[in-house]
Amino acid sequence: MEKNETALASDLKILTGEEGSRKGTSSPVRSRTSGPEGLSMVPNPEVPEKAVRRTFSAEYKRRILREAEACKEPGQLGALLRREGLYSSNLTTWRRQAEEGTLEALSPKKRGPIKRRPDPSRRRIAELEKENRKLNHKLKQTELIIEAQKKIAQILQTPLDPDGETNS
């Protein structure tokens, strides 16, 4: 009896391509969307690719709070939360915000860094710094030209006259 079971098991391994240390190039078990070594590459349908942050409008929050207040029998509140896909912590947070009495607390908050308006004085400072760099560049060019004129006058042995007249 034991020999028959082992013979059947070995026949099954041969048929499915599991016998031996090497794997065959074509296996009847592999699927069409298989990757390396026959692993399935089908994504899990229960997990979203990228989580999306849910935001709720103030009107929606008010409606859910009214419905939650109307729940009197045991299990109604849980059914409401399951139906809407909410957590009890959402309800607690919204109740606290409603008690504070601010409508803004019920609307979704904008996330991320606070965008500030550009300061007009900063723009003016940037313009002045740019102009300052430009004028400094022109000044250096002018100084180089004057130095070159002095050297040329020295080589030619002609005196430079600030009035533009020559001494003869």
Q: Main β-sheet: number of strands, strand sense, barrel status?
A: none
Classify the secondary structure makeup into a structural class. mainly alpha
Roughly what fraction of the amino acids lie in strands? Answer: under 5%
**Morphology call:** elongated
Unreliable sequence segments: 29-34
In whole angstroms, the N-to-C terminal distance is 136 Å
Helix content: 40-55%
Give average pLDDT, whole number.
Answer: 77
The helix tally amounts to: 6
- The tally of beta strands, per DSSP, is 0
What's the order of the H and E elements? HHHHHH
- Rg measurement, Å: 42 Å
Offer a few descriptive terms.
168 residues; 0% strand; elongated
Structural features, described:
- This protein has helices at residues 2-16, 58-70, 76-84, 88-100, 103-106, 120-156.
- The chain is mainly α and 168 residues long.
- Among the domains are: 58-106, no CATH class; 123-168, no CATH class.
- It is elongated and about 110 Å long.
- Residues 29-34 have low confidence and may be disordered.
How is the topology of this model organized?
Elements: H1 2-16, H2 58-70, H3 76-84, H4 88-100, H5 103-106, H6 120-156
Summarize it.
With 168 residues, this protein is mostly helical. Among the domains are: 58-106, no CATH class; 123-168, no CATH class.
